[in-house]
User: Fold this.
Amino acid sequence: MDPTLVSLLGLLGQAGASLYGEYLATQDEAKVRDILQKSLDEFGNISLPKFESVVAQEVGPTALNGVKTDQRLTDAQYGSLGSYDDIISGDGLAAEDQANLNRIGNQLARRMSANKSSVQQGMQAQGMGNSGAAIAAQMAQAQNANQDLAAAGYD
Assistant:
């Protein structure tokens, strides 16, 4: 097919799509105008009151003035709110959660140290004590420990 003809067909296709889009937009605009006019016809004739000024009036006591709260419930509510303060000051974790994460971190650090020693001994036994393979194995152990710690934070 001739490249000029292909270009011409592409141009005609774009022009046709543009015209069709413009047609749809004008149809939507006509619908919006119609709905707006119907709303004005239906609600436009409602007369609203006109105030020259608004004056506040004091009313007498209400039934709410007689409501008494139970001090125990108020204290319990403030106690609960206080626990949220502890969580906020603890970077989103309660003290118990922080302690659990520290415990898990310590367990993982001990396990990582033991694994590192095991890798070093194994590599030295094979004559590859400071080789790249030994370093890669140690890095893999460290990565696994970090992943375990991150996963433990979601439990």
Summary: The helical segments are 3-43, 71-89, 95-125, 132-152. The chain has a mean pLDDT of 77.
